[in-house]
Design a protein that fits this description.
By secondary structure, this protein is α/β, with parallel strands linked by helices. The chain has a single domain (6-91, 150-249), classed as Rossmann fold (3-Layer(aba) Sandwich), CATH 3.40.50.300. It is built from 8 helices and 12 strands. It has a 6-stranded mixed sheet, with helices on both faces. It has a 4-stranded antiparallel sheet with strand order 2-1-4-5, covered by helices on one side. A two-stranded antiparallel sheet has the order 7-8. Strand 4 (59-64) and strand 5 form a beta hairpin. The longest helix has 17 residues, at 151-167. The two termini are 29 Å apart. The structure holds adenosine-5'-triphosphate (ATP). Adenosine-5'-triphosphate binds at residues 15, 18, 20, 38, 40-46. Keywords: ATP-binding, Nucleotide-binding. It comes from Actinoplanes aureus. One of its GO terms (molecular function) is ATP binding. Residues 6-252 form the ABC transporter domain. This is Sugar ABC transporter ATP-binding protein.
């Protein structure tokens, strides 16, 4: 049997004296989309930050494709093929879309004396257009500075950048925090399609959202947190929205009580 793409066991997390997570077991398999749900303060962002290396857990273990790892920073998790999409927070505002999509992968061309050193914006634009086409994502023209985009367009660019970074990797994991929060109808459909396409390529996807219809559309399985504990872990096909809402609000007893 193949190992999960990402597996967390017995994760505890405290902020000072505040307990945010207690003994969380979580996994996502290659090609699987797991919706991570819970009310405000349930611990979703904290768990996502543990997965992305932004927080070190107070206890528990993390495995990537079966191998135990310790993340000291987000670059450690990125090296292990895990990409966190921080919505629009990590975009460089004055730069255009293609430059933002190319951060860390700039195409350089030779200068007049034969030295490498000029950023080849035209080649980067062409590559970005091809990458977005492949992902089925439409935004604004590549030359538009990100600061001139709408909140929804920025969110799509941030998501596309994460998707591009994992799309070449057979073992990639994509962590999405509220990817449709600022989106209208058409952009939400694009993001749903993008999530499905990435999963079909074998990327493991963790989706934190308050958007239950989005979860029913794209998730294979949902994990529900309530006050820092896991209260449900169930295939979407085996449950119904009322039950999920019950676990989120606490009206329904934990599966693990
Ligand atoms: N930096 C912090 N310092 C202290 N406590 C924190 C910090 N971040 C989160 N918490 C606490 O940890 C718990 C879980 O918060 P977390 O942000 O993970 O919840 P969440 O499920 O993502 O909520 P939301 O849906 O509102 O974003 C809450 O009790 C919160 O107050």
């Amino acid at each position: 049997m193949t190992s999960p793409a990402l597996e967390l066991s017995g994760i505890d997390m405290h902020y000072g004296y505040v307990g945010a997570l207690a003994g969380i077991d979580f996994h996502v398999n290659p090609g699987e989309v797991v919706g991570l749900l819970g009310d405000n303060g349930a611990g979703k962002s904290t768990l996502l930050k543990v997965m992305s290396g932004a927080h070190r857990p107070s206890g528990g273990t993390i495995r990537v494709h079966g191998k135990e790892v310790q993340f000291h920073s987000p670059s450690d998790s990125a090296d292990a093929g895990i990409q966190m999409v921080y919505q629009d927070l990590a975009l460089v505002d004055p730069q255009d879309i293609s430059t933002n999509l190319s951060i860390g992968r700039e195409i350089l061309r030779k200068g007049p004396l034969g030295w490498l050193g000029f950023v080849d914006r035209k080649a980067m634009r062409k590559r970005s257009e091809a990458e977005l086409d492949r992902l089925g994502v439409r935004t604004a023209p590549m030359t538009r500075p990100v600061e001139m985009l709408s909140g929804g367009q920025r969110q799509v660019v941030a998501l596309a950048r994460g998707a591009i970074r994992v799309s070449g990797e057979a073992n990639g994991v994509l962590l999405l925090d509220e990817p449709t929060a600022a989106l209208g109808y058409e952009q939400t459909r694009q993001v749903e399609a993008l999530i499905r396409r990435m999963a079909a390529q074998g990327v493991a996807i963790v989706l934190v959202t308050h958007n239950l219809p989005l979860c029913s559309e794209v998730a294979d399985r949902v994990v529900v947190l309530n006050r820092g504990s896991k209260v449900a872990d169930v295939a979407v096909a085996d449950t119904e929205p009322d039950h999920i809402v019950g676990w989120i609000t606490g009206a329904r007893a934990s599966q693990f009580a």
